[in-house]
Design goal:
This protein is of the alpha/beta class. The protein contains 13 helices and 29 strands. The longest helix has 19 residues, at 319-337.
Length: 567
């Protein structure tokens, strides 16, 4: 291994003698690697230093001043002795150096924190009870931890109007603390530059240029970036108190990017989706498409009850009879028409585990069955922003994972048909396919005229979430659930396998396709009755699902800071 540079070249790296640089923050030694600021080292070491304007993805402006601290560092001109810097330094901007000591709890540092909080609250309205940010507001938290107990300001506060700055964003200007995170985001990450600072001093404020609203594809991220209640989500406004929400780590279920997300829900209903930081996938961001594209989960068009055709009319039945009807129909077709008379179309909206189980079921009763992929929606072209985030044109989460699983089951990659080839084959004269097991789970209408025409001449078992052109014509209808109501594994556009768990319970009488497939396998006597267990299914699937799947790291719930007194 090549070691450090010397005057004569390089010397071998000695891992045993190498010592990581260290700094001491409030008496705690912290090791660090590379070029980092004091604040970055503190955050990496789980040491809290209050900050507003700093964000790891944005340029450092050191404007909020609440992170200032006393710093002592070795003086090379005085035999390396520690010397206290005569003024407070912004920890977000000060490079960490070996041997440095930082004091955020010294009287001078604490006095600065209290002063900064007092200045920020001078014109801030006292509307926490009606503010959507209440409960996750840095201003609230820091006021409690670092602020003064009372206010000395008795003059009239400067009031700013509420502004509509975009399709999704409201600006409450009188709550703004001028951290400029949102301004830097639109300049450095999206490159669109809609937001800017106007005015000076107490009259300074964030605003947009006339006719240029914040409507870029990543606009919702400015809401996440805002540390106070200045930028709010129109969609979430007054919808739910944040301390009532529960969060579940999940994966974007409507595009191919595999963005890591938090699903915030309460009492079985989703209220919002937030980005979950993953520097290797989506960094700190999600697109507005991912943020607001989940509404179909609670659509009135959801399929909620199994049905089967009876005398030309669909009637509601229970799950055991629905499973029996589907299994009987497909097995009877093979018995009457022979092998090769069945077809399975697996939607790219399904998980890898579900594709595996459905494939096992169909191949178990018809080894020569046609295997096909469902339609892959593509809208426009990929768009990469200056900050590195990409909005992908492919609008399904698991095309690669489904194909990988079907190819492994069949042992022949050429046997797996894409949707167009599958439908074209159904339209050919003499096609042997007499019955089909089709899956949907798309957020919008997906059935084409060609597929509808092909299904009129065949018996169809349909697994789907929303009413479609086939849901009323299927011989057996088995209602399924969205990705937010189940767990599994998706493979994103870069081949990364990521698992996720259910956030909310399935709607009414619907159930995940994975459980339906297990029930079908049991009814066909191909396996024992079982409940869906993603980890167990992945073990059956083998590599790479046993070793290369990235699992979410859940964060610990917030510690209770309020003390209760028994009355």
């Amino acid at each position: 291994m090549i070691g450090p540079q010397t005057r004569w070249g390089t010397r071998p790296f000695d891992s045993e003698s190498f010592v990581m640089p260290r700094i001491t923050i409030d008496g705690k030694e912290c090791e660090f690697d590379g070029k980092k600021t004091v604040l970055q080292v503190a955050l990496d070491s789980d040491i809290e230093i209050p900050h507003y304007c700093y964000h790891p993805s944005l340029s450092i402006v050191a404007s909020c001043r609440i992170c200032l601290a006393e710093v002592a560092q070795p003086n090379p001109h005085n035999e390396g002795k520690l010397e206290l810097v005569p003024k407070l330094l912004p920890t977000c901007q000060t490079p960490a150096a070996d041997g440095m000591e930082v004091y955020t709890q010294s009287p001078k540092s604490i006095a600065n924190q209290k002063a900064v909080m007092e200045y920020l609250l001078v014109n801030h309205p006292l509307d926490c009870p009606v503010c959507d940010q209440a409960g996750e507001c840095y201003l609230q938290d820091y006021s409690y931890r670092y602020g003064r107990a009372g206010s000395r300001f008795v003059e009239d506060k400067i009031k700013q109007p509420k502004k509509d700055v975009g399709d999704h964003v409201l600006l409450y200007a009188d709550r703004c603390i001028m951290c400029t995170r949102c301004v830097r985001f639109t300049r450095e990450v999206t490159g669109t530059g809609e937001l800017a600072t106007f005015g000076r001093g107490a009259e300074e404020q964030i605003d947009i240029f006339p006719g240029r609203p914040v409507n870029n594809e990543l606009s919702g991220n400015v809401i996440d970036l805002c540390p106070v209640g200045a930028l709010l989500d129109k969609d979430f406004l007054f919808a739910q108190r944040v301390w009532l929400l529960k969060e579940a780590p999940s994966i974007d279920g409507i595009t191919a990017g595999g963005d890591n997300i938090w699903i915030h829900h309460n009492e079985g209903r989703i209220y919002r989706i937030k980005p979950r930081t993953n520097l290797e996938v989506n960094q700190w961001w999600i697109s507005d498409e991912v943020r607001y594209g989940w509404k179909f989960i609670h659509s009135d068009a959801r399929l909620t009850q199994p049905r089967r055709m009876n005398m030309g009319v669909q009637v509601d039945i229970d799950w055991p009879r629905a499973i029996e009807a589907a299994t009987t129909l497909l097995r009877k077709t093979v018995q009457e028409k022979g092998e090769g008379s069945l077809a399975l179309m697996v939607s790219p909206m399904l998980t890898c585990e579900e594709a595996h189980l459905l494939g096992r079921f169909i191949l178990g009763i018809d080894p020569k069955a046609v295997l096909a992929m469902g339609p892959v929606p593509v809208h426009g072209e990929d768009k990469t922003f200056p900050g590195g985030y990409t909005v992908h044109a492919e609008k399904c989460p698991n095309r690669r994972g489904v194909r990988r699983v079907l190819e492994a089951l069949s042992g022949d990659a050429d046997r797996i048909l894409d949707f167009d080839a599958f439908v074209a084959g159904l339209g050919e004269k003499g096609s042997p396919t007499a019955a089909m097991l089709l899956t949907g789970n798309y957020p919008s209408e997906w059935v084409t005229k060609e597929l509808t025409a092909a299904c009129r001449r065949r018996q169809v078992v349909l697994l789907d979430t929303l009413q479609s052109g086939l849901s009323d014509a299927a011989e057996v209808l088995l209602p399924s659930v969205t990705w937010a109501e189940k767990g599994g594994t998706f493979e994103n556009i870069h081949g990364r396998l990521q698992s996720f768990e259910a956030a909310i319970a399935p709607i009414e009488f619907a159930q995940p396709e994975g459980q339906t497939a297990l029930d079908l396998l049991a009814a066909a006597e191909l396996s024992e009755p079982a409940r869906f267990d993603g980890e167990a299914i992945r073990r059956q699937m083998g590599e790479p699902f046993t070793s290369d799947v990235y699992h979410p790291v859940t964060r610990e719930p917030a510690r209770e800071t309020m003390s209760y007194v028994e009355l």
